[in-house]
Amino acid sequence: MNHKEPGKVTEAQIAVHWQEEQYFHPSEDFVAQANMTDKGIYDRFGLNNFPDCFHEYAELLSWYRRWDTTFDASDAPCWKWFVGGKINASYNCIDRHLDSNRNKAAIVFVPELEHEPHEVITYQELYVRVNETAALLRDFAGLKTGDRVTIHMPMSTDLPVVMLACARLGVIHSVVFGGFSGKACGERIADSGSSVLITTDGYYRNGKMLDHKVKADEAVKVVSEAGQIVEKVLVWRRYPDTYQSEAPMKPGRDFFMDEHLPEFRGVRVEPVELDADAPLFLMYTSGTTGRPKGCQHSIGGYLTYVAGTSKYVQDIHPEDVYWCMADIGWITGHSYIVYGPLALAATSVIYEGVPTFPDAGRPWRIAERLGVNIFHTAPTTVRMLRKFGPEEPKKYNFEFKHMTTVGEPIEPEVWRWYYDVIGKGKAAIVDTWWQTETGGFLCSTMPAIHSMKPGSAGPAMPGIHPVIYDEDGNTVAEGSGIAGNICIQNPWPGGFQTIWGDRNRYIKTYYEKYCKDSQSKDWRDWPYFPGDAATQSSDGYYRILGRVDDVINVAGHRLGTKELESACMTISDLAEAAVVPVTDDLKGKVPDVYVSLQPGVRESKDLEKAVVLAIETEIGKIARPKNVWIVPDMPKTRSGKIMRRVLASISNATDVGDITTLANPEVVEHIRDMVQS
Ligand code: WTA
Fold this sequence. Notes:
Helix content: 25-40%
Oligomer: single chain
Bound molecules: 5'-O-[(S)-ethoxy(hydroxy)phosphoryl]adenosine
C-alpha cells in the first residue's frame, strides 16, 4: 500500500471543493428524552482516561466475573480487553431481561409477502427458542465452545436465534450474507474451518421464492475441493413441513431444523461463562487482495461497545420500536439489529425483503403499523426511495424521533430529503462512519449534543481519537479541511482482534503503513488505518471521502476489486480483467469491468454475458457490473501495471490526466471512444 506511482495524485490528496453545509439542530423534544445529553462524556473519554473510560460502557452489561485488566497490549497490535472477565452474550441479550421484560417483543419479523402475518417473538419466546436451538447445536450437531459454524441465511427470526444459540455455547459464528453465492459461502466455510453449515430452504425476494438450499450444495462442494468436510448441513424451512428448494436433501448430512428441534423441547442450556476476550464471531469482509478476511470479534469488548453506542448514539430505550433495514449478514445487522439492541432489551424489527416490494410505500406502512420510532438505513436505500417522490411517504402516518445512515457517504441533497421528507423536519439524524473491523461507530454526532451537518459524519465518538496523515505519515493539521488518510490513534473495545488465521495480514493491512515501531508494546505506536480518506473541518467534524484502497463500495457493500477480477478470470477466453468503480445515482458506486481477450478469441455478446455470470456465481448478484467492456488492451505503465485510475476516469467521464508516461497511450483514446460514444 506504500507503493506510489510517480506523479500519481492519491484520492486523499485531491483538493476538496465542496462548500460547508448549514447546521441542523436536534429538536427540544428529542433532547428532553435522550439517553445522552452530557457533553462531559467527551472529557471522561479523553485520551488521558484511556482505557478505563470504557468501564462506563462495560457496566451496561452483566458480567459473571469482573475483569482484572481493562486493556492488555502484551500481544500488540492484537489488543485484549477486559481480561479475566467472564461473560456470555446470549445471557446479556436474553436471560437478564426476563425478570422485567419477559413478555416484551424482542423481535418483530415482517415477511415480505404483505398478507402474511408478522411474527412477534417475546423475550420469553426468544429464550425458549435459543435454548432449544443451543441444545440441538450441542447435542445433535456436536458443536462445542471454540468451534466455528457458518450460517448462510436470509433475514428471518431463525437467524438471530441461531446466532444467540451459538453465543450461548461459545461457538464462534460466521454469518455469510444470504445474497452471496454458494461458492463465496464455501470459501468462507473453508477459511473458518467450520464443519457445520446452517442454511435455509428458500426466502422471498421481490415477491419470488428464491431457492437457497442449492447454494449450500455448491458451498459443500467448494469446501470438499479445498480438502475439508462439511459434516452436517442444518436447514431451516421458511414454512415448516414444506420444502421450498429443488435441491435434494442428502441423507446423513442434511437435516431439517424443524424436524429435529422438537427432540429438544423444554431443554435449557446454561449459558457458558466465557472469557471476555474469547471470540464471539467472525465476519468476512473484502480487502485489498483477493481473499476475504475473517474479522474476529471478541465477546466482552464487542458487546460493550455495541451496547454503549446503541444506547447513546442510536438512543434506544427499552420502550422504543427500532427498525434497522440492514441485513443481519453484514456487520450493521450484527451490531445494530441483534447484539446492541437486544443487549438493551429493545424491540428490533426484522424485515425479510426489499424496501420497494410491492411498492415504495412498504417501509412507511411497516413503520406506521408497528409504531417504529427509530429508523436505520443506508444512503443507497434513501436514494432509491427518494426516486419515488415526496408524496409516497406522506400517505402514511409514521413519526421517527431518530434516523441513522450508514455504509457510504451521503450526499447533502439526499441527506436533506431524508431529514425533511422522512424525518418530517423533526427526527435527529446520525451519519455513522465505521466498518466491519471496528465493531461499532467511529464517527457520528451524539444526537442530543451536536448539531447535524449534511454530508459529514461528525466528530469522533467518545473514546475514539482520530488523526489524519498524509501518504508519508505527516499529520495533517487538525480542522484544516485538507484531505488525508484517517486513522484512529488508540484502540477501543469494539475493534476486531485479528484476521482469522492470518495475524500477519492483520498487521500489514491495518497497521504497517503508519506503525511507528513494529516491536512496540505501546498502543501509541500503532495507529489503526481503516483505509478511508477524510477531511476534518474547523468545527471538528469529519467528512469521509471514500476508500483509498482497492475496495468498491456498492450500495454500502464492500467488494474487493481483486475478488471481482479473479471471478472474471475464471473465463479461460480472457487475457486480463480490470474492475473500476463508477459513480451511480442510486448505489453510490458500481463496478465497471474491462476485459481483454486471449489471442484468437473473437469478442461477442455471449462473452460479456459470461463475465456477468462469472461474477454472479463467484460472488453474488450484488456485485453485478454496470458494463462489461471488451478492449484490445489495457492501459499500462511501462512496468506493465494496469492503470485502473485511467479506466476509472474513462468510465466516470472525468479527465484521465497525464497519460504520456504510459506504455500504450494510444489505447486510452480507443477505449474512451468506445465507452463515451
Ligand atoms: C464506508 C459498514 C462514509 C467506508 C458499517 C468504510 C462510510 C466502509 C460510512 C466500511 C459513512 C461506512 N460515511 N463512508 N457513514 N459508513 N462507510 O465494513 O468506506 O461494510 O471503510 O461496514 O464503508 O464498510 P463495511
